[in-house]
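As agreed, record copied across for absentees:
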Amino acid sequence: MPYEIRVIDDEEIVSVRLSGRVEVAEHVDARRDTLRLCEEKETIKILVDLVDLTSSMATFEAYDFGSTFGTDGATVPIIMAVVLPRDPRVRKDVQFIITVARNRGSQVDEFDDEDKAREWLHAFGKVSQ
C-alpha cells in the first residue's frame, strides 16, 4: 500500500502520507480511508504529506480528483493542509488539484513543511464534528 494513515490524537488531526508511485485508484482509496477515519475519530482536520510522492495524474484525472477533494465521502466539511512534493513536476500537478479543490469550496492550503501545515491546522482550534 503506497499510503499510511494515522491519528495524531492530541492534535485532533488525521494524517495521511502518500509516497512513491501512486495510481489514481490508490489516491481515491487513501482519500476514502482518511475520511472514514475522520468520521470515526470525530475530527475534520487532515494533514496530507506528499513530500515523497513521485507520480502525477493526467490533467482530466487531476481535475476530477480536485473537484471532489474534500467532499467525496465526507459527511461534514473538512480542513486540509497539504505538504507539497519535492519533485517540481509532481508539485505543480498537486497545486493544480488544490486550486480546483479551492474553486469547489474546499478548505485546503499548501505548505512546504509539516510544521507549518500543522500550525495552520491548529489555528482552527478544537473543531471536532
Observations:
- The radius of gyration is 13 Å.
- The chain has one domain: 3-122.
